[in-house]
Amino acid sequence: MTTFNRLHLIRQIDLFTLRLFLSAIEERQIGLAAIRENIAASTATKRIQVLENIAGVELLVRTPKGVVPSAAGTILARHARRIFDSLEDMRSEFASLTEGVRGELRVVSARSVIVPFLAHELGEFSREFPLVDLIVHEVENSDIVKEIARGEADLGVFASAYGLDLDGVDVTPYRRDRLVVVTPRGHHLAERGAVTILDLLPENLIAPQALVAALRAAAQRAGEEYKPTHVLRSGGTAISLVHAGLGVTVQPECLVGHEWSGRVAVLDLDEPWAERRIHLATPRGRELGPSTELLVEHLLATSAAETTDALGLPTDS
Questions:
Q1: How many Cα atoms within 13 Å fall on the side-chain side of residue 290?
Q2: pLDDT tens digits for 232-258?
Q3: Helices (H), the chain
Q4: Is the model's pTM score more than 0.70?
Q5: Which of 37, 133, 178, 207 is most buried by its number of CB atoms within 10 A?
Q6: For the segment 127-142, what is each residue's pLDDT rounded down to a tens digit?
Q7: DSSP string of 206-224?
Q8: DSSP 286
């Protein structure tokens, strides 16, 4: 490897290779980083080797399980993240100089939030700010925080979940919802107003994937074990199986729509963790861009207005 040369570094290094280097650290494999950045694995390996030659030191330590940053790699990663943070700040400042609010706004959320809440509110926001290009990605609830922390999206909307790591993001409370129990009509639990986790464990409890960890933890606290026989991504699919008589399920109340009225029974879940809290996530310590800040304000104002209406409280008008 060559000796570190500042001018050589400035002339030779490129932002894409820095982004690839950060991805390799986060994915712990150069091959996975290549997939994430949409380039060939051989090209990714060559780019990182060239980066190491430019820096004059080993940046990634290769192990049988993947790669980890060396001491020099840790230093480079810290400064590279600062560079990308500064670029994002520059983009936001440029946007604020243009006439009207415009730009690209990336939002990530889960289906259980998009369908009942977010889709309608994003539609209202888009009509109010037509120059903002909204890009919405549906991802698993557990992956939303990770994408925000990595700077891959501007705003995440997620439901709190057992064991969810919030490192790297700032969190703002957005909404509250409740988990309910859905059973077939005529099921022996259907006549009860509320049930607990102990009532559900003897049944064939069909779990949406996002709730498996919470149900398993609740069972452990009750001194029992939960082993799901069906694990599904879609809440609607789980309710369909319940309607067919294959078991019972736990779902966010907002997802049990009118189309299921009279076809299944809906019971209260008498557990302290049955309250589902939905939050907004933004990159930790970062100043929000104008469009992101406006969307956050819009979502919070809409949620507050709906809460006021639901409680029958007087408005300011």
A1: 18
A2: 877 778 889 999 999 999 988 877 876
A3: 6-12, 15-27, 30-37, 41-55, 71-97, 111-113, 119-128, 141-149, 197-200, 212-221, 235-243, 290-311
A4: no
A5: 207
A6: 888 888 899 998 888 7
A7: EEEGGGHHHHHHHHHHTT-
A8: P
